[in-house]
Structures are given as structure tokens and as C-alpha cells.
Automatic annotation (TrEMBL):
Gene3D superfamilies for the chain: 3.40.50.2300
Leucine-binding protein domain sequence ranges: 37-361
Listed PROSITE patterns: PROKAR_LIPOPROTEIN
Signal peptide positions on this chain: 1-23
Organism, scientific name: Gordonia sesuvii
UniProt keyword annotations, A-Z: Signal
Protein name: ABC transporter substrate-binding protein
Family: Belongs to the leucine-binding protein family.
Family matches, as InterPro entries: Leu-bd, Peripla_BP_I
Length: 409
């Protein structure tokens, strides 16, 4: 099957969404890019105990797709300068200093928890950050124009998951997240206040990032006899191990999976009824997605296979792939040189623009209370079906959240 560029898919979407796609009438490029590369930065969490190698796979597939299918950015090939984050601020600072010294026009945040330490350095150099979502509160809190994230902030996941449980009339939940200072801050500052506002009693376990006995964690969760068990956030393999242990120990009520998705194939029918909330439409949701999104998901699957990562179709690989493709499409539509200034100006001007497998974005700094980096504030939540497909909990797909449930500042 031929891989279709996002530009072509957006043209289809534009038939029903006026003014969202480029209207210059040009056909999307389909020949390999040539000439001097456009080098951009990326900080990906690919080292340390909490590494997510899937982020790098998505980046690599995205660059290959942009160069070989989209024809680069205005004919020039895209090249990635990737720095391996390990969760430490020291590494993030070193990465940022390297990006500044090499003069990259933008840095991709591949959902790196330590990205916040890079924000002041990149901000002082006026190098914008972009990504599907931020890996830290600090990155979320960057001033307007310093970062652009195409889905909600870190606080979004807490509000989305707990609002979903509330809509399902769930009153108690027992959830796990890897031990770290950021995890405790997330729970204390968001999970507990929001759950209190919604009347949900939440117990949290903090297994270590490496060497955790998730069978023991599952036993702890089951012993509480909650309405809901599962995770706030764990790596993909941790989610799968925990969910399997919950089922073995007889838990047949709702499991909350966060943004994990790889458990679906491994668990088969036992995954039925699990609630997952990726930020984008993912491959398992293809059958229930709008037609233009189905084609984009096919593009992602084929591009990952072409890059040799057909077995890594996770949410995180999709997030980074989508970020690369969105950047290439947006800057190609803008034309002209790709500099830090033109990237910032172009992203600030985005209004109701369709994105790869994601929501329409408006980067005006007004989409989330006190978070200027967010370009969309809608939730997308799925329930796993017996055949492994995902269907939206709300048939509309992306839905608005009640922002009044957020903790008051």
C-alpha cells in the first residue's frame, strides 16, 4: 500500500474543515529530499532506568518518512540531532547547551521527564520546543512562544483519567506510578486534589523504575478491593506485567492503563474493558477512527515497518513520529527559511489546524488555564474491545473537559 503524505490527507480533511489546510493547490512532494539538511534537535528519554526507546524509533521513522515520502521540508532533507535524556537535569542541561551551540531552530521534546531543566537555556536562546505533550511541569510552564505542545499539559492526564472514572460512577481507585520526585509531585498536586473534587478515593503505589515486583503491586491493589486498578503511568512492559498480574489474581473490574497500549496484543481477550487514554488516535483505534485518521494510522504503520520498527507501534513512538511529520508539514506550508524565529512565528499563528492522528490545534496560549504552551485541551479515551480494537468511550472522539475540576491556583 502506498504511504500517503499528511498534506494529501489534510486536503481530504479540508473538504469538511474550511481554512485548515494549505490551499496553494500544489501536490505534496513524493520524491526524496536533496540539498543541505535542516538539522533540528530532539531530547529523547532513551537512557537510564526509565528509558523509553520507542520514542527514538518514532523519531527515526518520522525523519525517514519526511525525507523519502514528503520530500523533506521544501525539498531539503530533515536531519535529527538527538540527545539521550536519562531523567537527570544535568543531562538535560548538557543537551540544551549542545543544541544552542549548534544553533538548531527547534528542539523536539520526546516526552522527556527532565526536559524542564533545558527550558531556561533554550528559552534564553529563543529556540522553541515542540512535541505532542510535555514530559514535565516545568516544560509545560514555559512562557508563551517558548514551547508548543499539541495536546494538553501534564495536568491534563490527571483530569482526563479521573473525569472518565467519574463518568463511569467509579468511587475508589488503586493506581501505580514509578517512584520519582516528579511522580510524587504529580500525585500530590494533581491526582489528589482532582480526585477530591470528584469524590473519588485514590490509593497510589510507587514501585521503583527498575526491578519492581509488579505481582506484589497487583496484590496490593487487589487487596484494597477498588472499583478501578491499574496505573497513573508506567513503561509499556510494566503496564503489561501489572495488568496480567491483576487478571491472574482475579481482578475483573475496570483497569486504567494511562497511555499504555502494547498490553493489548500480549493479553488478548483478557485486555477487554481496560481503559486507555493516549493523546492521539492509535493503530488499535483505526476501525473506529474518522476516515482521514485511518489513513494517517496506516501511514504510521507502514513508515515504522520501513524503518525496521514494525513491532514498536506504541503510543510513544506515534507521539514522536507525529511531532516530526507535523513539523515538516507546518514549515513546508509556511515556506521560507527554517530558523528559530520563523518556527516560533509559524507555530504562534496556527489556528484550528488538523494534526497527524490528533486534534485540531490553536497555539494562541489560551487553550488551558495558566498554561500558554498548550495548543489543545480535549480528551480522547478508549475502551479495549474483545477483539483488541479500541473504541472511544465517547463516540465523538475528542471531547472537552470540565476545567473547573482542576486545583485552584
Amino acid at each position: 500500500m502506498r504511504i500517503r503524505p499528511l498534506g494529501a490527507l489534510m486536503a481530504v480533511a479540508a473538504l469538511g474543515i474550511a481554512g485548515c489546510a494549505s490551499d496553494d493547490g500544489d501536490s505534496p512532494a513524493t520524491s526524496a529530499a536533496t540539498g543541505e539538511p535542516i538539522v533540528i534537535g530532539a531530547q529523547a528519554p532513551t537512557a537510564g532506568a526509565s528509558a523509553y526507546p520507542q520514542t527514538e524509533y518514532g523519531l527515526a521513522a518520522g525523519v525517514q518518512y519526511v525525507n523519502e515520502v514528503l520530500g523533506g521540508i521544501n525539498g531539503r532533507p530533515l536531519e535529527l540531532d538527538t540527545c539521550a535524556g536519562d531523567g537527570s537535569p544535568e543531562t538535560a542541561i548538557n543537551c540544551a547547551n549542545g543544541f544552542v551551540s549548534r544553533g538548531v531552530p527547534v528542539v523536539i521534546d520526546a516526552v522527556d521527564q527532565s526536559m524542564g531543566a533545558a527550558v531556561p537555556i533554550l528559552g534564553a536562546a529563543n529556540i522553541p520546543i515542540t512535541g505532542t505533550l510535555a514530559g514535565s511541569f516545568v516544560a509545560d510552564s514555559a512562557p508563551y512562544g517558548k514551547a508548543f505542545y499539541f495536546t494538553g499539559p501534564v495536568s491534563f492526564a490527571a483530569l482526563s483519567s479521573l473525569s472518565t472514572l467519574d463518568s463511569m460512577d467509579k468511587n475508589t481507585a488503586s493506581l501505580a506510578v514509578n517512584e520519582s520526585p516528579t511522580s510524587h509531585a504529580y500525585v500530590d498536586d494533581l491526582i489528589m486534589p482532582i480526585s477530591g473534587n470528584l469524590g473519588i478515593d485514590v490509593d497510589v503505589q510507587y514501585p521503583p523504575a527498575s526491578g519492581a515486583n509488579l505481582t506484589v503491586v497487583a496484590a496490593r491493589q487487589v487487596s484494597d478491593d477498588p472499583d478501578v486498578a491499574g496505573v497513573i503511568a508506567l513503561p509499556e512492559d510494566g503496564c503489561t506485567t501489572l495488568f496480567q498480574a491483576l487478571r491472574r489474581q482475579g481482578f475483573d473490574d475496570t483497569i486504567l492503563a494511562g497511555s499504555c497500549s502494547q498490553f493489548i496484543e500480549t493479553m488478548g481477550p483478557q485486555a477487554e474493558g481496560i481503559i486507555t487514554q493516549p493523546r492521539l488516535w492509535v493503530p488499535s483505534s483505526k476501525n473506529s477512527a474518522p476516515p482521514e485518521i485511518q489513513e494517517q494510522l496506516e501511514t504510521f504503520e507502514e513508515a515504522m515497518a520501513d524503518a525496521g520498527h514494525e513491532d514498536e507501534l506504541s503510543s510513544r513512538s506515534l507521539y514522536t513520529f507525529a511531532t516530526i511529520v507535523n513539523f515538516a508539514e507546518i514549515m513546508s506550508d509556511a515556506g521560507g527559511d527554517v530558523t528559530a524565529a520563523t518556527v516560533t512565528e509559524t507555530y504562534q499563528a496556527l489556528r484550528d489546524r488538523p494534526t497527524f492522528a490528533g486534534p485540531n490545534v490553536t497555539c494562541d496560549g489560551e487553550q488551558w488555564p495558566d498554561v500558554a504552551t498548550t495548543c489543545n485541551a480535549q480528551a480522547l479515551v478508549f475502551e479495549v474491545q474483545q477483539n483488541g480494537d479500541l473504541e472511544p468511550v465517547d463516540e465523538r472522539g475528542y471531547v472537552d473537559l470540565d476545567l473547573s475540576m482542576l486545583p485552584s491556583s
